[in-house]
Design brief:
By secondary structure, the protein is mostly beta strands. It folds into three domains: 17-138, Immunoglobulin-like (Sandwich); 148-250, Sandwich (Immunoglobulin-like); 252-392, Beta Barrel (L,D-transpeptidase catalytic domain-like), CATH 2.40.440. Helices cover 10% and strands 34% of the residues. The chain is built from five helices and 25 strands. It has helices at residues 17-29, 47-53, 175-180, 356-365, 396-400, and strands at 61-63, 75-80, 85-91, 97-98, 100-102, 108-114, 120-127, 132-138, 148-151, 156-158, 164-168, 182-186, 192-198, 204-210, 219-224, 242-248, 252-257, 262-267, 270-276, 291-294, 297-305, 316-324, 331-334, 352-354, 371-375. A hairpin with a 2-residue loop joins strand 18 and strand 19. The two termini are 35 Å apart.
Length: 406
């Protein structure tokens, strides 16, 4: 059984219908611009030059994008042919503004973000001499769109080991450009780093984690300004921004000692549960994973079938109080059929089993994002970073190397 990472509502619209509607308006406003590159030029003089020909007070400008099929994914540059710029406004569909900076000499304004695909933009300029100008252009549509899923879910409270995780629908070759557009802020100044990895699904994934577990109460915000970013070959373009916010709950750590067959739950450093368990059978594929796994989801009663984890027809059971630790199928759950082995031996098919009562108690105490630190001599290896949230099994130095800028 598996569940997809939580998704959030984007900050911008999925489609570009309104942008196409405004395209005609942009053409009316500016049939053509004197430009230094991109798009298609028209046969008529720009409104600036036409106004100047009639003696109107206007400041001549050039814009690097023009026409109705301007190239998206590049910053907008507005240059005054004479005089100095005082204010520049560049607005797209739905009155979405591109912020930017005027150069030290006052001649050029450059947007902070790139122009998005299928968008009609209006440019309004005022010079230091009081003269003004207005023009427009429309960016071309794109053939392929990339999307993403975010975890944890928006406005949730999660455990101290939950990374901010992004899974992309299509490959991301331009990792540096994408990572640069992902802005993480925290309420207490916690710093961290992005790491790129291959999700268990085979898709590209980027996780953001601090050096150590989060501090309880930290509020984490992501502003993913991806609209107009090109993923690279086979990946397509992003055509909207994304945002999410979540909060870190109490400091809980579940320590699972497979050699002693015990699970101890610590809260703020104090032991609150000490439960007998039975882990995976040593010596083969039925062994459990070791290392730090993160509670991904609390799934209640689910059907577990051995075929889904490559173990043939060994079992097909309805299992209560199921808590997922990996995408590959390692859970903590009730396993009353293994009662003789709790606290004595590891005899499960890879999961960590408890009595019905103890599983129910643990289920009520833990939350998604809590770390399960698993130790034991007879395991089948360490939880991989993409198999759930195995990020914490890399050292901080190793993790930072996963950044596109590492």
């Amino acid at each position: 059984m598996s569940s997809a990472p939580g998704s959030v509502r984007p900050t911008g619209p999925e489609g570009r219908t309104a942008r196409h509607v405004l395209a005609a308006l942009a053409v009316v406003l500016a049939p053509a611009l004197t430009a230094c590159g991109g798009g298609q030029a028209g046969d008529h003089p720009s409104p600036v030059r036409a106004a100047a020909a009639h003696g109107a007070p206007a400041t001549a400008i050039t814009v690097n994008l023009r026409g109705t099929k301007a190239t998206p994914g590049v910053p907008v540059e507005v240059t005054a042919e004479s005089g100095r710029l005082r204010t520049v406004s560049v607005r797209g569909t739905g009155d979405e503004a591109l912020t930017g900076r005027i150069s030290a000499d006052g001649r050029t304004w450059t947007s902070d973000r790139v122009a998005a695909p299928s968008t009609a933009y209006t440019v309004e300029v005022q010079g230091t001499d009081g003269r003004s100008d207005r023009a427009g252009f429309t960016t071309a549509p794109v053939d392929k769109v990339n999307k993403l899923s975010l975890a944890p879910g928006k406005n949730t409270t999660v455990g101290i080991a939950q990374p901010l995780s992004i899974v992309f629908d299509h490959p991301v070759a331009n990792k540096a450009a994408v990572e640069k557009a992902l802005r993480v802020t925290t309420s207490d100044g916690t710093t961290g780093a992005w790491g790129w990895l291959r999700d268990h699904s085979g898709r590209d994934r980027a996780d953001w984690r601090p050096e150590h577990y989060w501090k309880p109460g930290t509020r984490v915000t992501l502003a993913a300004g991806l609209d107009g970013i090109d993923s690279g070959p086979d990946g397509g373009w992003f055509v909207r921004d994304y945002a999410t916010t979540f909060t870190i709950g109490s400091a809980q750590v579940a320590k699972v000692d497979l050699d002693r067959h015990r699970l101890v739950l610590l809260r703020e450093g104090r032991k609150v549960l000490d439960l007998p368990v039975s882990g995976g059978t040593p010596g083969g594929d039925k062994a459990s994973w070791r290392g730090t796994a993160v509670l991904m989801s609390k799934e209640g009663t689910i059907n577990m079938r051995s075929e889904t984890v490559g173990l043939g027809d060994a079992y097909d059971k309805m299992v209560d109080w199921s808590m997922r630790l990996t995408w590959s199928g390692m859970y903590v759950h009730a396993a009353p059929w293994n009662a003789a082995y709790f606290g004595v031996a590891n005899r499960s098919s890879g999961c960590i089993g408890l009595s019905d009562a103890n599983a129910e108690t643990l289920y009520g105490q833990v939350r998604v994002g809590d770390p399960f630190e698993i130790t034991g001599a007879d395991t089948k290896g360490t939880v991989a970073d993409g198999n759930g949230y195995g990020d914490w099994n890399l050292s901080w130095a190793e993790w930072k190397e996963r950044s596109a800028f590492g």
